[in-house]
Design goal:
The protein is 31% helix and 24% strand. The protein has 332 residues and is of the alpha+beta class. Strand 2, helix 3 and strand 3 form a beta-alpha-beta unit. Helix 2 packs parallel to helix 3.
């Protein structure tokens, strides 16, 4: 069944709200953070053919569109409040929209975040979400707080059988591309596709790390590339990453060492939290992650200003291969 613009909004994207007195029915949404809080705001866009395949199930597309934005709030240590959805559609099909909305609303309900507005138009399939969160004034996790000597940590699923381990999304992409040398025998491709299409934002961990982590970022474009943002914003620090410490699933461990490192260090689309903390807080970090329902692994140390960024191999020497992070205008 084809729908008009306002019919599809009323049918699939109008829900009761508590934090916005206007809901989705006015020109602007009104959001008031609690006393002593700051608003944290972020936007991410998903474009068909660039961020997702045309064959993705609409429920998963709805989930991922919100998940990648919630991941930004997690990296800031912000509690989700509300979001807007700008949706471009080649055609308005009721069944497809119902499934998209189902995936979107299910994740929104899980994180207690409300849809308060947005826009719809006809055009190539494109979803752009803006999220709003709140964080106590002065307590936000930032990229700029890292210090030399900090431990470097990465989050990951709590158990080996959960999908979404570092590098799995990139591995699935290489399988879709038919990249030579990828070892697919015995792999659970449904699990890998779930990792690619249904990332789990680490909101609970981000909230728990406020006051403990000194810097944080979510891994969307590759671990090394995103780490580079932290190092630059923190005054040009160096870093030493132990390749053997990088957490990896059985699917990743089955690949050649070169492909493993490519997926782990430059894969992206993981939406795990990469953060630094004082070495004295190691036990605290591990306990907070356990309470947040995920795992964390210490993968290295931050160096002094001007020191290099090195990935150290099993022999204790820096690996010579360079890894490039994803760039929307340079990567193909």
């Amino acid at each position: 069944m084809a729908l008009g613009e306002f019919d599809l909004i009323a049918r699939h994207f109008t829900r009761p709200v508590r934090r916005s007195p206007l809901g989705v029915g006015d020109d602007c949404a009104l959001i008031a953070p609690a006393a002593g809080m700051q608003l944290a705001v972020s936007s991410d866009m998903l474009v068909e053919g660039r961020h997702f395949l045309s064959t993705v199930a609409p429920e998963r597309l709805g989930h991922k569109a919100l998940a990648v934005n919630l991941s930004d709030l997690a990296a800031c240590g912000a509690r989700p409040l509300a979001y807007t959805l700008a949706l471009s559609l080649p055609r308005a099909e009721d069944a497809w929209l119902a499934a998209l909305a189902s995936g979107l609303h299910a994740l929104a309900d899980r994180h207690d975040i409300e849809l308060v507005g947005g826009d719809t138009t006809a055009g190539p399939l494109n979803l752009c979400i803006t999220v709003f969160g709140e964080v106590p004034r002065g307590d936000a996790l930032l990229r700029s707080g890292a210090r030399a000597g900090d431990d470097l940590w990465i989050s990951h699923p709590a158990t080996p059988d959960e999908p979404g381990w570092l590098g799995e999304a990139r591995l699935m992409l290489e399988i879709f591309r038919g990249t030579p040398g990828v070892r697919t025998e015995g792999l659970d491709l449904d699990r890998l596709r779930l990792a690619m299409e249904c990332p789990q934002p680490r909101v609970a961990l981000g909230l728990a790390l406020r006051g403990v982590a000194r810097s944080a970022i979510d891994v969307s474009d590759g671990l090394l590339g995103d780490l580079g943002h932290v190092l630059r914003r923190s005054g040009g620090l160096g870093a030493r990453i132990e390749a053997a410490a990088l957490p990896r699933s059985a699917a990743i461990a089955r690949q050649t060492e070169a492909l493993q490192l490519e997926c782990l260090l430059a894969g992206g689309d993981d939406y795990e939290l990469l953060f630094s903390a004082d070495p004295a807080d190691r036990d605290t970090v591990s306990a907070l992650a356990a309470r947040a329902g995920c795992g964390v692994t210490r993968i290295g140390t931050l160096g002094e200003v001007g020191a290099p960024v090195e990935v150290i191999g099993a022999d204790g020497r820096p690996l010579a291969t360079a890894w490039a992070s994803f760039d929307h205008f340079l990567s193909r």
